[in-house]
Design brief:
With 159 residues, this protein is of the alpha+beta class. It folds into two domains: 1-89, Gcn5-related N-acetyltransferase (GNAT) (Aminopeptidase), CATH 3.40.630.30; 90-159, Aminopeptidase, CATH 3.40.630.30. It has five helices and seven strands. The strands form two sheets. A four-stranded antiparallel β-sheet has the order 1-2-3-4. The chain has a three-stranded antiparallel β-sheet with strand order 5-7-6. Helix 1 crosses helix 2.
C-alpha cells in the first residue's frame, strides 16, 4: 500500500483525501455547468455530490495497479475547496513517491487552460488526436501530454 503524507503541499494548494464534510465545498462548483464543459460528467445535484463524497471519502492510498487516487484541492491560505483531482496530475507523487516511469495527461483540445497547466508543469505534448471521442453529442479532439521520470529528474536538478 502506498499512502502519501497528507496534506500534499504546493505553493498555493493543499491536496488531501475527500472527507464527509466536503459536500458543501464540492457542491459549490460541481453544480456549475461550466465546470463540466470539457468533462464526461454533467453538472451535479446536491444528492449526486453527497453520493460521490460517500463513495470517495476516507483513506486515500493505492494498493494495486490501475487504482485511482482522488484528492480535493484547497487553498493553502483559507482552506476553501477549489477543485478535485485524480492522481495522474500529481507529478512529484508519481515520480518520487511511486517511482513511476511515465505519466500522461489526456484532455479535451478545447481546454486551453488545462493544456497550459500541463505545459507549465513541464509536460510535453505528444499527440493531438482529431475527433477521437464522442462526448456530450459532439466529436472532440484530445490532446495527450507526457513526462518521463528522466525528464522529471533533469527538471528537478535544474532547480
Amino acid at each position: 500500500m502506498f499512502e502519501p503524507e497528507y496534506p500534499i503541499r504546493t505553493e498555493r494548494l493543499l491536496l488531501r483525501p475527500w472527507a464527509r464534510g466536503d459536500v458543501d465545498g464540492l457542491y459549490a462548483y460541481h453544480r456549475l455547468p461550466e465546470v463540466h464543459r470539457y468533462l464526461y460528467s454533467e453538472a451535479r445535484s446536491r444528492a449526486e455530490v453527497e453520493a460521490l463524497v460517500a463513495e470517495r471519502a476516507g483513506p486515500a492510498g493505492l494498493t494495486e495497479a490501475g487504482q485511482e487516487l482522488h484528492l480535493v484541492a484547497a487553498l493553502a491560505d483559507t482552506g476553501e475547496l477549489v477543485g478535485d483531482c485524480v492522481f495522474f496530475a500529481l507529478l512529484r507523487l508519481g515520480f518520487e513517491g511511486l517511482a513511476l516511469h511515465r505519466i500522461t495527461g489526456h484532455l479535451d483540445a478545447r481546454n486551453i487552460a488545462s493544456a497550459r497547466v500541463l505545459e507549465r508543469a513541464g509536460m510535453r505534448r505528444e499527440a493531438h488526436l482529431v475527433e477521437n471521442e464522442f462526448v456530450k453529442g459532439e466529436w472532440s479532439d484530445e490532446l495527450v501530454y507526457a513526462m518521463l521520470r528522466s525528464e522529471w529528474e533533469a527538471r528537478q536538478a535544474r532547480g
